[in-house]
Amino acid sequence: MTERTPVDPSRARIDLRSDTVTHPTAAMYERMRAAPIGDDGLDGDPSVRELEAYVATRLGKEAGLFVPSCTMANLLAVLAQSQRNEQVVLESTAHMYTSERGAATFTGLFYQGVTGANGAMDLNRLEDAMLSGGHRLKTALVAMETSHNNAGGAVLPLEHMQAVYGMAQAAGVPVHLDGARLFNAAVALGVVPAEITRHADTVSLCLSKGLSAPVGAVLTGARPVLARARVLRRMLGGTQRQAGIMAAAGLEGVQAMGDRLIEDHARARRLSDGLNRLAPALSATVPQTNIVQVETADTGMTNVQWVTALEDAGLLTRPWGRTRLRCVTHRHIDDAAIDRAIEAFKKVLASR
Ligand SMILES: Cc1ncc(COP(=O)(O)O)c(C=O)c1O
């Protein structure tokens, strides 16, 4: 066997494209190897059952369902709580709206975006959107997202979530929370996740972002809704067999990786502070969690040119809208990597 050439960490590329690039931890690999497994499509898989029960309890819900992706968790929450020709109301830059509403082409549902600020819906617009009668569609579900990806990782204030939940309940409409990065929000607010999830009926939690598991998400909620979601998961082909191997890594993620997210938040802030020292050419959002958006409009370069130039300088980022870049911190990014990332931005600025 040929030996692998060791990677010199000072020359490795810094990957700030997403927290989804995180690899499993050594403890995850060990739990995957030792996990009791079964057939989750036949008579059940013990590790999957353990994950589902554990996440449901942590989030203060009756039941959980392990699914291959957070997109599927959100879709199942919608399908299990709505009928064709009804609508889902949500903030108009929510991931479920900007990136997942294509599902409407086969679900027969409509997604109604509501304008807002920092990921929080304008409550007057929400009230309008939920009105029924005449030409209006019946609202089947209201959805929120925290932390909020497109709002630069903003965390919804709990008072806002409570207000939305109260309005929806008064209208007899269930609420779903896209908590892909719920643990980031909890750490940022300094509360346990259940303090956030009590303002929603169903919640999706992604295991493969900052929590570092290789794949998967868990949908949680009341038993009857989750029973419907389980049937729908099979219809979508989302029932997996020896899925306990993946569930074991997910369990390690939710049990051991939540508290360290505070480090990712501090590093996002370090990045933002460093980039804001390069003003006025560049400006960066001040993050509440692990996402920083960098405004490049005043640099005379397009964001696609920026992505390429930064890549040449050893830094991977993603274009976000026409003039912004998105940088996401995660477990593989240490302080030295942040400092090198700032240097890469400086280098590109100097070479314009
Ligand atoms: C807020 C939010 N929800 C849902 C998803 C979908 O997750 P997945 O790619 O695991 O399906 C993402 C992915 O980035 C996200 O940021």
How is the biggest beta sheet arranged? 7 strands, mixed
What amount of the residues lies in strands? 15-25%
Name the helix and strand elements from N-terminus to C-terminus, one letter apiece. EHHEHEHHEEEHEHEHHEEHHHEEHEEEH
The strand line-up of the biggest sheet is 2-10-9-8-7-3-4
How many angstroms does the end-to-end distance come to? Answer: 46 Å
Helix content: 40-55%
- List each distinct ligand once: pyridoxal-5'-phosphate
**Gross morphology:** globular
- Rounded mean pLDDT is 96
Low-confidence stretches: none
Structural class: alpha/beta
The count of DSSP E runs of length 2 or more, i.e. the number of strands, is 15
Number of helical stretches of at least 4 residues: 14
Rg calc? 21 Å
Keywords, separated by commas or semicolons:
352 residues; alpha/beta; 7-stranded mixed β-sheet; 4-stranded antiparallel β-sheet; 15 strands; globular; binds pyridoxal-5'-phosphate
Structural notes for this entry:
With 352 residues, the protein is α/β, with parallel strands linked by helices. Helices cover 41% and strands 17% of the residues. The chain has helices at residues 26-34, 46-58, 70-80, 95-98, 104-107, 123-130, 158-170, 182-189, 193-197, 223-235, 244-256, 261-276, 303-312, 335-350; strands spanning 14-15, 63-67, 87-91, 110-114, 116-117, 120-121, 139-145, 175-179, 202-206, 217-221, 283-284, 291-295, 315-316, 318-320, 324-328. The strands form four sheets. Strands 2-10-9-8-7-3-4 form a seven-stranded mixed beta sheet, with helices on both faces. Strands 11-12-15-14 form a four-stranded antiparallel beta sheet. It has a two-stranded parallel ribbon with strand order 1-13. Helix 2 (46-58) packs parallel to helix 11 and helix 6 (123-130) runs parallel beside helix 7 (158-170). The termini are far apart. The mean pLDDT is 96. Residues 69-71, 95, 145, 149, 178, 180, 206, 208, 217 line the site of pyridoxal-5'-phosphate.
